[in-house]
Amino acid sequence: MKEKIVVKNLTKIFGRQPGKALEALKEGKSKADILNDHKQVVGVYDVSFDVHEKEIFVLMGLSGSGKSTLERLLNRLHEPTSGEIIIDGTDITKLNTNELREFRRKQFCGMVFQNFAILPHRTVVENVEFGLELQGVDKEERREKAMKVIEQVGLTGNENSFPSQLSGGMQQRVGLARGLSVDAGIMLMDEAFSALDPLIRRQMQDELLELQDKMQKTIIFVTHDLDEAFRIGDRIAIMKDGRIEQIGTAEEIISKPASDYVRAFVEDMNRAAVLTAGSIMQPTVERAFPGDGPRTILRKIRKNNLTGILMADTKRNLKGYIRARELVEYLNKHKEQEKVPFDQSLLHQPSTVTPDKSMTEVMNIYNNTEFGPIAVVDEENKLQGVIVKGNIISALSEQEDEMIGQHEKEDD
Asked: What are the Cα distances from residue 390, in Å, to 286, 306, 399?
């Protein structure tokens, strides 16, 4: 995956004597110690990470963790004390004022803030045009681009309204549209949805994800809300006292917290809402093939101590599920026959999910499944794995190894 942004050993100290603060940090002093002893504020210290092209990278942390400072360093709204910020191969810490201004115009969509930061004396379309106006785009072209983006964010019909005539959610869409109109590759969003009520906030998260499918921007999203971070982030960086504690996907962070701080942060998180079918499934121990006879299938079932078996062809196209008890009854009825053909009535349609389904959805499906495991299939119905009761229990339990051993074969 191509890296859009690479950050190396980035540090920001607020104060007149950053050198003293850096020395103290190297000696192991805390952020609080440095503020107390040297009157310097540690914004960010020795941070290194990369952001992939076209991903939503979330900076997550409590107030004072350094997340907003770090985001502002990425386009040099804050000047770094030391370190490198490399965007598409260019270290922007080395650019002069004019070079930086030009670079921002080409690379950044601007910022979308918590308080919307839209201009009250301008209409919606005039607000959306603002970034293009600063770039010197002529009136006709910027109006055309603005109207196109207004349609994308669902504001058609409100283009001539003033911000005071709009709801909070609509005002946030204006801020989003203004950023998108510039059509640069990187968008910075700082607590963009925090001022909205929960229902509208969730709607805006959904709309951002839908827009991202079309826009394919590189988005740096700052939030203090863990649920929001896990919901929209391709990867999340959890910050504390100006440093990054852990970077990973929601599943990686909740399954394998890197520190006690991260563990405490996510301990109340609903694992079922974060983990997916793909992360809890297991490989199929054995499967039946369409050409197998009933005795061959029964042998596979008994050899692996199963109560049933999935059938898929050599290309893993799922065909169905066979229950051991029904197969035995069928063979007993035809035990005098030398060759017993497979009866298609033995083949049942199993419950299926795709790997991206949340564990909450998996559990709902499992509770309504009459028999057998849940088959995990891709969009072309090719078998990827299987989920049994033990997979669900172990994913929800801290004692995973013990629980897997106890339950994994209950519903094979």
From this structure: 17, 14, 12
Report how many domains make up the chain. Answer: 2
Contact 349, 321 (CB under 8 A): yes
Q: Report which residue type is found at 264.
A: A
23 and 160: one domain? yes
Query: In whole angstroms, what is the distance from residue 209 CA to residue 101 CA?
Result: 29
Same domain flag for 211 and 101: yes
Instruction: Output the domain CATH number for residue 196.
Output: 3.40.50.300
CA distances from 10 to 44, 73, 101, 226 (A): 7, 9, 21, 24
- Measured CA angle at 78 (ends 76, 79), to 5 deg: 75
Task: Quick: pLDDT tens for 12-48.
Answer: 999 888 888 888 888 888 888 888 888 889 999 999 9
pTM of the model: 0.67
**Nearest alpha-carbon partner for 230 in 274, 169, 289:** 274
Q: Tokens 């005539």 — which residue? A: 165
List, for residues 73-131, the tens digit of each pLDDT value: 999 999 999 999 999 999 999 999 999 988 988 888 767 776 656 788 899 999 888 87
Domain span at 182: 3-269
DSSP state of 382: B
Alpha helices per DSSP H over 139-286 = 139-152, 168-181, 198-215, 226-232, 250-255, 260-266, 271-274, 277-280
- For the sheet with 351-353, list strands across it: 351-353, 374-377, 383-387
Distances in Å between the Cα of 162 and the Cα atoms of 90, 118, 195, 239, 391 are 39, 10, 19, 38, 53
Using DSSP's 3-state secondary structure scheme, residue 261 falls into helix
Asked whether residue 412 is domain-assigned, the answer is no
CA 224 to chain centre: 15
DSSP for 221-253 reads EEES-HHHHHHH-SEEEEEETTEEEEEE-HHHH
How far is the C-alpha of 399 from the C-alpha of 180, rounded, in Å?
46
Q: Are 334 and 373 in contact (CB under 8 A)?
A: no
Tell the burial category of 278 from Cβ atoms under 10 Å away from its Cβ (0-12, 13-18, 19+): middle
Helices 294-303 and 324-333, axial angle in degrees (round to 10): 140
